[in-house]
């Protein structure tokens, strides 16, 4: 297991009448666990005095979030995503439904970028 990293993320609200959200998370990564072809990322919220809440954002909470990626063949992988977040505050259901339908695609796109970076760094 690698040393946990602390991440700060903020998301701009898609509508003007809802406050932006932010998260402070701890990320842990496991490579080659339980086997050579597997990569696991785990996220959870943490509170840090260095990153206080501000009036500009509502501090969301991640109970658990993560990715399990395992290589099946040269050009095929299995991806399992788990996400349990509380975005806090009052948000209309129609907006939650609209935005949450887009979220998994964005997560996968970001994960692919991260995996490409890891692969390129490993080649150096």
Short description:
The chain has 124 residues and is an alpha+beta fold. It is built from one helix and six strands; from the N terminus they run E-E-E-E-E-E-H. Strands 1, 2, 3, 4, 5 and 6 form a six-stranded mixed beta sheet that branches.
General description of the model:
The protein is an alpha+beta fold and 124 residues long. The protein has one helix at residues 93-123; strands at 5-11, 20-31, 38-45, 57-59, 61-73, 76-86. Strands 1, 2, 3, 4, 5 and 6 form a six-stranded mixed beta sheet that branches. It is globular, with a radius of gyration of 16 Å.
SSE string, helices as H and strands as E: EEEEEEH
Q: Specify Rg, calculated over alpha carbons.
A: 16 Å
The number of strands is 6
Low-confidence stretches: none
- Tell me the major beta sheet: 6 strands, mixed
Strand content: 35-45%
Q: Residue share in helices?
A: 25-40%
The structural class is: alpha+beta
Distance between the termini: 21 Å
**Gross geometry:** globular
Number of helices: 1
Mean pLDDT equals 89
């Amino acid at each position: 297991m690698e040393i946990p990293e602390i991440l700060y993320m903020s998301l701009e609200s898609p509508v003007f009448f809802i406050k932006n959200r932010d998260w402070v998370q701890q990320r842990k990564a496991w490579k080659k666990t339980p086997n050579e072809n597997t990569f696991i990322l785990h996220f959870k919220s943490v509170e840090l005095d260095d990153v206080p809440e501000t009036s500009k954002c509502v501090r969301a909470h991640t109970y658990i979030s993560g990715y399990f990626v395992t290589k099946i063949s040269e050009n095929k992988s299995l991806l399992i995503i788990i996400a349990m977040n509380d975005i806090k505050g009052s948000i209309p259901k129609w907006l939650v439904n609209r935005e949450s339908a887009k979220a998994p695609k964005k997560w996968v796109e970001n994960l692919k970028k991260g995996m490409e970076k890891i692969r390129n760094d490993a080649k150096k």
